[in-house]
Amino acid sequence: MMTPENRNRAVVLASGGLDSAVTAALAKTEGWALYLLTISYGQRHGIEIDRARRLAKWLGAVEHRVHELDLRMFGGSALTDNLDVPRDRSQKERTHGIPVTYVPARNTIFLGLALAYAEVVQATRIYFGANVVDYSGYPDCRPEFIQAFAEVARLGTKMGVEGRPVDICAPLLFKTKAEIIRLGLALGVPFHLTHSCYDPDENGNPCGRCDSCRIRQEGFRAVGIPDPVPAHQTDVESSVRNSP
Amino acid sequence: MMTPENRNRAVVLASGGLDSAVTAALAKTEGWALYLLTISYGQRHGIEIDRARRLAKWLGAVEHRVHELDLRMFGGSALTDNLDVPRDRSQKERTHGIPVTYVPARNTIFLGLALAYAEVVQATRIYFGANVVDYSGYPDCRPEFIQAFAEVARLGTKMGVEGRPVDICAPLLFKTKAEIIRLGLALGVPFHLTHSCYDPDENGNPCGRCDSCRIRQEGFRAVGIPDPVPAHQTDVESSVRNSP
Q: Superfamily assignment of B9-242 in CATH?
């Protein structure tokens, strides 16, 4: 029988969002013993952390760590400061330039923490739900960035020197949101536990209008099924009509 | 007149140790406006942080941030766990393999945090006191690691995409400890504010016997001047004779 003791170990960066849930489910299907890492960096949506905990249970993760990271390091982003999160942007508007929701060096730090965790538990892989199709404006979601980080992981660790480098696996990198949702459906991912909003209300309900909500809505619409998180089903067209 | 406003900005990773003090002094001499970053990761020697603060004042740093990092991410090192720090090792013993004082992925995380800080304050350089001569066993002090991280900085940030990448400068990389001390003397570095011990006593006095203390002692001896931190002057030979 496969037990956590004799399976290969993988660290999964689990944000509580849809992409990282599908990534983790894929890692599970591939037979890895899962070590989930959620970074809480004082982002507005603390609800994501609760969802990540529930997801970890569903996945049968060996361990789930929540690492608190000081917000102050990340001034200058709409996700960490009191800047307005853009709403009701079209696909074209969303992919023009670097979004104000870019958080300086975030994925470098997240992958660095995942790398430390991987060495501590001797995991040989980090799963990372980055995506370059819907999030083309983020420099630290691009394949060339991930490849560069893999070199850092190989050269800057004891495991790398010993010939067992930690590899960085981003299985959703080139998938559309619809493809990611279809993959998640096939894997039985509990989408109702996932959360994809940059700017939820005080009860944790998604706004339905930020880039992340809109990409999710468009994805479920393309697949042709309703989003199991009701508030994510906001009708985009009507919210556009009603926006000031 | 040069003011912080019209000088180029650099982030300096300042541990409170001798190498980072010389690195910061060099950056100052080169005309950079200094943004010092000290990472407090629950290491035993909290005294280093106090020294880094005093050094920041001496340097006239524009800002000095102390970033707390959760210790738990770093299990598995003599610097973070209750493992014994090796003592009284010869130069040959010290450079054989990866020391137990290696902290998993530490410099990747430290440089990642420095990179975020650099983007927030729009600094175009990170100064980093890594050294490959005396610390050849640490994978994340090697030039190939630093080069790989520079690629991450170029590819994974907004500044990199905009053609103003943050470069990583490790000016002490190939210097011996004696050369570093001579450089520090020329720059007027207040060595009495620096601290180089892995395992100080409860009053913050260096042990005089760990690898870091021994490298420092050998450096001052090679230069032919006394170490201004009296406890660092422990006679290595007598402590070897007296060791159990």
A: HUPs (3.40.50.620)
